[in-house]
Amino acid sequence: MRIALLEDEHEQAQNVQNILDERGHHCDSFPTGQSFLSAVLHRSYDLLIPGLADPRHDGYRCAGKCSGATELADSGHLSDPA
Description:
Blueprint: E1 2-6, H1 10-22, E2 26-30, H2 33-42, E3 47-49, H3 59-75
Parallel strand pairs: 1-2, 1-3
Helix pairs in contact: 2-3
């Protein structure tokens, strides 16, 4: 399974990645909401794990933006998800 993780604490992100790797998954971690959003809008992931503490792009906002962008992309109205 390909997983995207938003976690601004490097040690926490590394711990989660290690656990997922041990279970045979591939996990990309992102330290900021902006890098997370950019990745999930341009790559295919099976699971998104948004963090909740990023002051500019908390997990709730990222989830909403990902959901809205996916709906737009599916409808053909999203040309450049920057």
